[in-house]
Every structure is written in structure tokens, then in C-alpha cells.
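Q: How would the C-alpha cells look for this protein?
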Amino acid sequence: MIRRREFITLVGGAAAWPLAASAQQRARMRRIGVLMNLTADDPQSPMRIAAFAQGLEQLGWTLGGNVQIDYRWAAGNIDRSREYAAELVSLAPDVILAVGALTVGPLQQVSRTVPIVFAGVTDPVGAGFVASMARPGGSATGFTLFEYGISAKWLELLKDIAPQVTRVAILRDSTLMASMSQFAAIQAVAQSFGVELIPIQAARHRLPAVYHRRYFVTAGGLISYGPEGVHQFRLAASYVDRILKGEKPADLPVQAPVQYEMTINLKTAKTLGLEVPSTLLARADEVIE
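A: Here is the predicted structure in C-alpha cell form.
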């Protein structure tokens, strides 16, 4: 025989179960906005989206299950970035992944409260996105494209693969603070390599060149050295996860890449009449023959 008090307790507990389960189910769905600096049909886009989704999945977030992702493609257009930034913020996301400096600024102009995780930004401090790398202090944090010191490495690699070079043209956008800092880093070591630097706005054909991304070399460039781009999207997923679980961007330090890759195109080297040193080939992560 069940006493009345025990019966009430059992019934009350049983009645609470479906309510608690229902509330828990509703609380599981979170919303993530993604503002990309590419087009949806860019060859790099599927790989980056997949890496981000896989990173989230490994951390327990399932698309359509407990998380929804809204994508917008700015395609390097500042006006489109502003338009899509406003659209994403109006959807009231829990956090936004912003790829490239061209997307972060417009987002912060629309809202200073929506958490932002950025990727592929060269100088977040100089651009005013964060107060410092160690303590961002606001609503944004993320992962830098590379450190300025890597710019000097590009000149070193260019001399390794084309030792006869004494004059080097620097293709840059002089209106960008990051571009000025990168040029300064290269200029600081130019004399030690016996090289004269020439900042220009256009390129000439059939000249050895070093790039910061692998896809330039797969498209016919000579050599590249820089961070593996897709990996940043997996890292971004980890910060999105931490924010969704209650941490604040202000307390998450901005991180610089720790993994770099070198790609050499031997076809291009042959076309340019260059013999790539065996020591350089041994250091390469990928050699295109």
C-alpha cells in the first residue's frame, strides 16, 4: 500500500519528466551566423565549411539537431559585407564566425554585443577589433592569419630558390595597416640578403615569386609558405563551442597560427629556369611535379 504523500511525490515527479525533457529539447538548438569573405562556389569554400562543421560535430554540435548555421557570402565586397552583417545580426545568433578583416568591421558596426569569432585576420589589434591579443576585451576574438615575422621568411625562401635575385618587388595594398607592417618586416632583413625592395601595385610575368597560400602555387605560382587555411576553421569551431557553453570572447586570447606549410611547384621552377636546392625540397610539405 502506497501512502498518500509517497503517491503525490511519485506522480509529481513523473509529471515533471516530460516538462523537463521538453524544456531541455528546446534549449538545445543554438544559432550560429557565418559571414564568409569568399563566394559559395569558390573552390576553397566547401573545404572550409566542412572543417568548421566537423569541428563542431566533434564537440557535440549537430547541424539541425542542437545547432543551426546561417551562411552569408560577402565575396570580398565591402558593401555586401555590410548588408549581410546586418542580416545576420537581425537573426539574433548566439555567435558569429567572421572570416577576413573585411567582415569583422561591418559586424562590429552593427553590434558590439553579439559574440564574434574571427579567422583569417592579419592585424586584429591594429584594425581595432580587439584591445590586445592576450585580452581582447570586447565581443570579438579569434585566429590571426599569420604573424608579421613570417614576411621575412618569404624573402628568405625566395633567395633560397632564386639566389641570383637582388631586386624584389613587393605587391601590397598601401592603404592597409597590415600591409605596411608586413613590408617593414621584410625591409628589416632585406639588407642581410643583399636585396633591394621595390613596393609596386602590379606584377610582371616570368618572375620568381613567393606566396602566402598554397592555392597560389597549385594555380601555377612558384613557392608558398603560410598557415594551412582549413585548419583555422577547426580551431574556430573550438572557440564557437566555448562561447556557446558560456565563455566570453573578451576572455579568450587571440591565437596566431602554429602550423605552417611550404609548397613548391617544380613545373614553374623549370619554366623559370630555376633549379630548386635539394635542401629546400626536403623542407617542403608538398612538391608539385
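The chain has two domains: 9-146+228-258, 150-227+261-288.

The CA atoms of residues 2 and 8 lie 10 Å apart.

Upvote if useful.
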